[in-house]
Specification:
The protein contains nine helices and 20 strands. The protein is an alpha+beta fold and about 375 residues long.
């Protein structure tokens, strides 16, 4: 049974007398103890989903289920959910102890019980030595722990997180991400976390939901979605750099890309038809620059990132990204030879852009 379930959720906003449908029949099932990340571009309604789950916003249609029960008419305080906002909402004039204790104080919990709960959760999160400090004396990772402690002290087993790491410096964000993942493994709360950060989503999620155009475009194991995206939009969005999607045509048991024939992967031989036009998805790391490469590309842009470079190369009418780990010095306008790992190809229908292998499984 799903621990958090969204069933056919619709939500509309009115902006300058114009109605905008943000969520369009969205469905999502989250199991107990999962770390589910909702990934999508800014403005797609990620925070709206969290607010609907928390009861801070009422959906226009559809139902919200928590712990197997419908909660559409339940107030936020009765849903037993904790929320960690983007800025942590930590009071700067309060000590760490008072910040953690705050939700218990406003609930009129007895003082001795408050102290016991705060000490227990602080010890659990290894911040018991920080209880007398003010937020200004804490690192980004420590502030994150305080925000999580305040959520856990309410004894909420469902925690909603709205891009809580986005305000941290890059280096601190990496450490905070590692700590958060470890905490979830140890404490096993059900976490629903929203972000637009690709790396964050892939590194944190046990289940990943990709949001676009008001619906979940893909949902499942993050690595499986990375390797086998449900559609071309997910392919081009998921990953940094994203998957290359280029036009091709089937000819017998081969696939033709820019007039070059490659062997068709076995898994597609009974799916595609001769002369069928398709879109080919191939990850930048699965394209290799080599002297005997079959495809010829011309470098249009170079991103030097230290350990590797991302080369933007034009092949026919398409521009692809290729990851090169060597320290070879490249120049714009340079011609390069490229090979691809055909077994890593993903083929999409050229009209509806859906993964052909997944279409075949559903039929």
């Amino acid at each position: 049974m799903s621990y958090v379930k969204l069933e056919d959720i619709w939500k509309e906003y009115e902006v300058k007398k114009k109605k905008i449908q943000v969520i369009k029949g969205l469905n999502l099932d989250v199991e107990k103890g999962e770390f589910t990340v909702i990934l999508g571009p800014s403005g797609e309604g990620k925070s709206t989903i969290l607010r609907i789950i928390a009861g801070l916003l009422k959906q226009d249609r559809g139902h919200v289920y928590l712990r197997g029960k419908i909660v559409d008419d339940l107030s936020p305080k009765d849903r037993r959910i904790a929320m960690v906002p983007q800025n942590y909402a930590i009071y700067p004039f309060m000590s760490v102890y008072d910040n953690i204790a705050f939700p218990l104080k406003i609930a009129h919990v007895p003082k001795n019980e408050i102290r016991e709960k705060v000490l227990n959760v602080a010890k659990m999160l290894r911040i018991d030595e920080l209880l007398d400090r003010k937020p200004g004396q804490l690192s980004g990772g420590q502030m994150q722990r305080v925000a999580i402690a305040r959520a856990l002290v309410k004894e909420a087993d469902i925690i909603l997180m709205d891009e809580p790491l986005s305000n941290l410096d890059a280096q601190v964000r990496v450490l905070a991400r590692e700590e958060l993942k470890q905490l979830q493994r140890e404490l096993k709360p059900t976490i629903i976390y929203v972000t637009h950060d690709q790396v964050e989503a892939l590194s944190l999620a046990t289940k990943l939901a990709v949001l676009h155009n008001g619906i979940i475009q893909a949902f499942g194991d993050p690595i499986k979605l990375y390797r086998e995206p449900d559609n071309a939009w997910v392919a081009k969005f998921l990953g940094n750099p994203p998957m290359n999607v280029i036009k091709a045509e089937i000819e017998s048991d081969t696939i033709i890309i820019d007039n070059v024939k490659f062997d068709l992967p076995d898994r597609y031989k009974n799916i595609v038809k001769d002369k069928q036009k398709v879109l080919v998805g191939i990850r930048p790391e699965d394209m290799m620059i080599t002297d005997n490469g079959l495809l010829e590309g011309e470098i249009e842009m170079i991103e030097d990132l230290g350990a590797y470079s991302i080369l933007h190369a034009k092949i026919g009418d398409d521009v692809v990204r290729v990851i090169e780990k060597s320290i070879t010095k490249r120049e714009r306008g340079e011609k390069i030879k490229i090979n691809i790992d055909v077994n890593k190809m993903v083929l999409f229908d050229i009209e509806n852009e859906k993964n052909l292998a997944l279409i075949n499984k559903s039929q």
